[in-house]
Every structure is written in C-alpha cells, then in structure tokens.
Design a protein that fits this description.
534 residues, alpha/beta, 6-stranded mixed β-sheet, Restrct_endonuc_II_AlwI, AlwI restriction endonuclease
Length: 534
C-alpha cells in the first residue's frame, strides 16, 4: 500500500463545535469507557446508535461498525481520547475538561492549533495508509500563517489549499508553498491545468486513482474543506464557504501575535518517538496545563532563528532543561555563545522553561549512532531521574568496559551497560557470564557503595531476558549476602519513564524508588509495560 503524501483528517462531523457531543456520545456508548473498544464490533455499532439518537449522524448503521470507528478516530485525532495496550479508551486531560464543560471552546481551539502530523492516532497500527516519512507539520497553524501574508493578499483559495498547502510536509515550507501559489495565480488556464495534473501524478497515493487533476481535487478537496472549517473555528480567519480563507489586513498583526504565542507555548511534540500513549497524553493537555518556550522570552535583536537553533543544538543532549541549574545552563551555552548571551539565556530558560521533556533530546537520543554519545545521553537521563551518575568509572586505575555507575542514598550503587544496537541486542550467555563474574564483583564497594542492581539500556529491540536470572544466580557466588537483580530497558521505555515523572511532578527520591521497584529480572520495551508493573 502506498503511503500518504498529502494531509488527511478523519471527518465524520466536519464542524468542531460538535466535538463535545461526539465525545459524550462515546462515553455513553461505552458505559463510561468501561467497555473494551478495540476489536469490539458491538461497541462500535452501539456508538453509531447513540450518535444517531443524538442527531449527530444520519440514520444509517454500518454492518461492521465502521461508522463508529470513524467517529472515534476523529476524537483520537484531536487527542481527546487514546487507546491503552488492552484496547480500552481513556480520556486525556483535555478530554476530561471538555466532558465536564470547562472552557470547551478554548480547549477545542487549542487542540486544533496543536494538531500535528504525525500524531498518536496517525501512527496507530490500524491507521492506513500511513503518512510518508518526514512529515513534521501543524496543518491549522500552517494554513493560518499562509493566509496571513501580504504577498497573497491575505487570502487562500480551497483549490490552492488542496493542490499546494496540503502537499507541505514541514512547517518551514511556508516560503516555498507561497512561491508556488503566486506562480499558479499568474498562470493562464492551460498552464494551471498542467500544474494541477503534475501535482496529482506526484502526490496522489490512492490505488484507485486515475491520477487525474479533477479526480485528485474531488478526493482531497473534502479534506481541505475540513481544515478550512477548523481554521475558521479558531476565529483567526474567515471562511467563505467553498471558496477561500481570508484575514482582514487590519487584524493581521493580532493573528501573527496569537500564532507566535502558540509557537512558543506549544512546540512540536516528538513523544510519538517514545510511545503513542505518552504522545496522546501530552498532546491532550488542557489549555490551563502550562507550556512555554523552552528558550524563555528573550528575543534577540537579530538572527533570532539562528540563535535559537544554536541553543537547541547545545541543549539537545539534556532531557529536561527545567531541572538543570543556572550554572549548568550557563556552562553549556558558553561553549559557543558569549558569556553575556549565555547568562541572559540561562536566566530566561531557568525562569520560563516548562517542566517537560526536551523534544530535541528525544530526537537526538533515539536517533543517536555514536556509541559514546548514546552512553552520555543515557547517563543524563539517569541524572534527571535523581541518581548521581559516574560515567566510565575506573577500578584500580584501569578503565573497564562498564559505561554508567549510579549511586543513591549515599551508600548504594548500580551499574548500567548501554547497548547502542540499532537492530537487536541479545543478552547472550557470554555477556551474562561477564556481568556476573567481572562487572558485579569489580564494582561492589566502589567508593564504599554496596552494589544492588545491574542493567542494560538498549537502543532498540532486545532478547535474552531469561539470562537476567542467570546473572543473579551466578553473582550470588561472588556476593553471597544479597540478591542482585537486573533489568533490560529500551531507550524509549526509559524516556517514557522520565517523561511520566516530570509531567507528574514526582520528586527525585520517589523516582529512584520507582525505578528500583521495576528492577526484578524483567525486560521492558515500552513505558506502558513499566506502568503496569508499578
């Protein structure tokens, strides 16, 4: 199946003012979300019946419940609900607020303006066809920014949205798409037809398509209409039905200010790289759950974007900016900025940085191919969890192969082996023997600390979980007064654990206790597995 190359949105009810009614109907149809949703055709059909009873859907029930699934997909798209590993639906924070009738309009607008590709629903296994790789765009924000330009006379037609805007994959393509639209407007009818035909042939993913421009416009124009309705609901643009989005030039500055506020308050969310559930929960924060620009409120007089990109690069190795001290921030920034700039930005970041996972760190960590850098970033995660971290500790002045030693409570320690295998790491009998007979006895007593656990952090998949118990048994021969257990944890699961701790304001002492609790000769590939064990 070919991948999507143009924007898409599930659209059972195009007008967002009915999102709350659709959510309440889903809650009613599933007995307060207590009925399993996934692969439950009866629940899907029952949802359709409730929608019909409430006048939200025409009186036609599908044989397989596809109508109910489509409506639920719309609610997932906007992160009002998400599905857990057992197939049950859960409300996000914004879903709860909308259910309770709290700031309904403000919360729906927030979900529209933070809607992004990719998001948790678009990455679910059941979503077909998938989006092509490389998408990193907030469609509603992009359309509003595109419309709000003097070069385009502050308007954007449905045709232009269908053929140009909806082919953009990245937020930074605004100048390129603007240029294409301006060229299209100046073209004669014959040239316009050729341009549209070329776009249809290049971007249409549908197997049944004849690749004609008219067919492309019919197929994707409905999506364009839906996005235009969503933008209209924000009250930042006007929608002339079936024709165009427009912005009054007198309101242009106010629109720019509002969108800039959203750009600062709600940066692009990369949690889909960690976990679809964590992504849905994060995107599903209500409007009162504060977010802010990770770089604070300092606006450099010139080269703003270049300066912020530089800061992003410098801070990409650190998982939580809010938990770095002022001195640490300044020291990091002074590597490439002047002392004065570093001090100004460090103060700003310390004051305004949100208590949330650094999205730049997420991307850099999960796509890290340098083994030493992967080890260092893994150490930074454990440091953010509250452990004292010693990287590449030496025993008897000779450097060993263990990468990370964690100390806690002043008298205990654990050792972590970071495995940056991008195919699969397998805990073999040989590696098990090495851990049990060398690493564990060598590091027990390091700086007077009693070694209490061992572990492996893997860049991708893992195998050999059963050998964790073998290590514990063999280590008993060297250290008989305690049972030293181990853990295998994927980088995604470890990130998800830290993300959960930060978002729920869990103090460092409790974070360490929670991590120690999951060390039970078990392996974890996702944060959801960890959460079920806590």
């Amino acid at each position: 199946m070919k991948e999507r190359k143009v924007w898409f949105i599930t659209r059972p009810e195009r007008d967002p003012k009915f999102h709350r009614e659709a959510l309440l109907a889903l809650i009613e149809a599933t007995d307060g979300l207590k009925i399993q949703w996934q692969k439950n055709r009866e629940a899907h059909i029952n949802y359709e019946k409730v929608l019909i009873a409430k006048g939200l859907k025409r009186n036609n029930i599908s044989n397989d419940g596809s109508g109910g699934r489509t409506w639920a997909a719309m609610l997932k798209t906007f992160a009002y609900v998400y599905t857990d590993d057992n197939g049950y639906l859960h409300l996000t924070k914004v879903g709860e607020k909308i259910r309770d009738g709290i700031k309904v309009k403000e919360n729906i607008i927030k979900q529209i303006l933070t809607l992004q590709i990719p998001n948790a629903y678009f990455l679910e296994p059941g979503f077909r066809p998938k989006f092509e790789s490389g998408f990193r765009i907030r469609p509603a924000r992009f359309l509003i920014k595109l419309t709000n330009q003097k070069e385009l006379d502050y308007y954007l037609t449905k045709e232009e949205i269908t053929f140009f805007a909806m082919t953009a994959k990245n937020d930074n393509e605004l100048p390129e798409i603007t240029k294409k639209i301006l060229h299209f407007r100046k073209a004669d009818d014959n040239e316009k037809q050729i341009i549209k035909q070329e776009i249809a042939e290049k971007y249409d993913h549908r197997e049944r398509s004849d690749k004609g421009a008219r067919d492309f416009e019919l197929a994707h124009g409905d999506v364009a209409h839906t996005f235009m309705l969503l933008c209209e609901y924000t009250e930042l643009v006007e929608y002339f039905r079936g024709e165009a989005l427009r912005i009054n030039p007198k309101k242009s500055k106010d629109v720019s200010k509002e969108i800039e506020y959203y750009d600062e308050r709600y940066p692009f969310n990369t949690r889909y790289l960690i976990s679809l559930q964590r992504m849905a929960q994060s995107n599903g924060l209500d409007v009162d759950s504060y977010k802010a620009s990770k770089y604070g409120k300092i606006k450099p007089a010139g080269n703003k974007l270049k300066t912020e990109n530089k800061i992003r690069q410098l801070l990409a190795n650190y998982p939580s900016l809010s938990e770095l001290t002022f001195s640490e921030l300044k020291s990091i920034l002074e590597k490439e900025l002047t002392s004065k700039e570093a001090e100004e930005y460090a103060h700003s970041i310390k004051e305004f940085a949100p208590k949330t996972l650094n999205s730049d760190f997420v991307e850099s960590y999960l796509n890290e191919y340098d083994n030493r850098a992967f080890e260092d970033k893994t150490g930074n995660i454990f440091r953010a969890l509250g452990f004292e971290v010693i990287m590449r500790p030496r025993v008897n002045s000779a450097e060993t192969e263990i990468e990370i030693l964690l100390t806690y409570n002043g008298k205990y320690c654990g050792i972590i082996d970071a495995k940056n295998y991008h195919t699969k790491f397998t805990l073999t009998a040989q590696l098990s023997s090495h851990m049990a007979s060398e690493y564990i006895p060598n590091y027990d007593g390091y700086q007077g600390k009693r070694l209490m656990f061992f572990g492996y952090v893997t860049a991708s998949d893992w195998g050999g979980e059963k050998n964790l118990k073998q290590i514990t048994a063999k280590a008993k021969k060297f250290i008989s007064d305690r049972e030293i257990k181990g853990i295998i944890i994927s980088a995604k699961a470890l990130l998800g654990f830290l993300d959960y701790c930060i978002e729920n304001n869990i103090p460092e002492e409790e974070r360490i206790k929670m991590f120690l609790k999951i060390i039970d000769n078990k392996a974890y590939s996702s944060f959801e597995e960890i959460l079920s064990y806590l």
